[in-house]
Amino acid sequence: MANTLFDKVWDSHVVRKVTDGPDVFFIDRHFIHEVTSPVAFLGLESRGNSVVYPARTFATADHNTPTINQHLPVADPLSANQLDALENNAAKHGISHWGLGDKNNGIVHVVGPENGITLPGATIVCGDSHTSTHGAFGAIAFGIGTSEVEMVLSTQCIMQPKPKKMRINVSGKLGIGVTQKMLLYISLQNKPLQELLDILLNMQAMFLKTCLWKVV
């Protein structure tokens, strides 16, 4: 497969290539929330590091938050502590924070597109497995672990091997109730899982705009 849009975006974000190893990969947008960030900030501070690019980091409370009555104290002590930690860490490091009651508060992977943070051609990470949904907007996006959250906070980079690529061409007309996700599942249902690890899928269809998925 010739160079694709994915190749161009990926290669333009590689800070350094490691021989027989992963790329040092620059991250444009880093979303954080109250569950996977507290330990990352503790690690950051234990090493005497600071957040290198606060303006590229966006904090929103979304995992341990009540849908209604957000003006009331959070009943669960662990959830309340995590929410307080997110607010305090964001204030300490100059990170924008959309906490409970903020007009911009919401699901971490919804507020990005809603507020123009998620952009085509951007690289996006978050300590959450649903981060790849930003790929629908033409971004390269994937979830990361807590230690990697710390790495991005302190360097704005991550050690990441470049994914392999797979193109799926679909022709015809979608039946009623058939979605893009169904097409993806049907296309991959007979593929061994090991073959699908770390693949960037480029699905093209006459009735769809190009969509990007990261299979992890």
Short description:
This protein is of the alpha/beta class and 216 residues long.
What does this structure look like?
With 216 residues, the protein is an alpha/beta fold. It has two domains: 5-160, Aconitase, domain 3, CATH 3.30.499.10; 164-215, no CATH class. The protein has seven helices and eleven strands. The chain has a five-stranded parallel sheet, sandwiched between helices. It has a three-stranded antiparallel sheet with strand order 1-2-8. It has a three-stranded mixed sheet with strand order 9-10-11, with helices on one face. Helix 3 links the parallel strand 4 and strand 5. Helix 2 (38-46) packs across helix 5. Residues 204-216 have low confidence and may be disordered.
Mean of pLDDT: 86
Indicate the proportion of strand residues: 15-25%
Q: Give the CATH level 1 class of the largest domain.
A: Alpha Beta
What is the overall silhouette? Answer: globular
Count the DSSP helices. Answer: 7
**Helix content estimate:** 25-40%
CATH topology of the largest domain: Aconitase, domain 3
* Order of strands across the main sheet: 5-4-3-6-7
* Cα radius of gyration in angstroms: 19 Å
Largest sheet: 5 strands, parallel
Order of helices and strands: HEEEHEHEHEEHEEHHEE
What is the name of the CATH superfamily of the largest domain?
Answer: Aconitase, domain 3
